[in-house]
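To fix ideas, we quote verbatim one protein's residues and fold tokens.
>
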Amino acid sequence: MKEAYPGNFISGMCQDVSFAYINPETDFALLKVDWDANREKDHLRGRTGFPFLTVSDRELNEGEPVYAFGYPLPSPVMFTPTAGHSGHSPRVTSAIVTSTLERSAFVSSPQDAKVYVLDKALNYGNSGGPILSTATGKVHALCSRFQPVSVPQNHIRYGNQPLQIVIPSLYGVVSSLANGEILNQLQSRGIAVMSD
């Protein structure tokens, strides 16, 4: 996992960052950041705490407009004409909840995590990013999976099988913050969870 270490994407933003909790099944992680070690950073000067988004355990409705936030697009940075690197650029994606029941599992039970399908592509840089309802301005879900489509190329064979071409995600699958495990982790750390 490219996100397996919190310093990969935020090392320039904050110091003393550690994982407080990780749930790979829902792509949910809580990071612990030391305020005192970071209060003098330029982007935090004049603040008394870290900026934050309000979270809600209200379920989203089919047809509800939402926004996804993440860093899915590569952003090349050139140091010299021959050296550089590729980073991620922030992106806001507007979407609509197309389904409140995602049926990719063979067996379903009431204990399964609540997920939604969005009508827009969400890709690896959106992973774990917030899904905000336009009606409430609160985070109701987070990006957890993608639905790439595999298209067999019958005219190109690999051994006896047609070559499979994978088209990037056409839809985003997002996990509700109302899922028991996520909700317990937020509340046990004193994070206020609204119900609207």
The helical segments are 7-10, 35-38, 180-188. The mean pLDDT is 79. The longest strand covers residues 83-99. The chain has three helices and twelve strands.
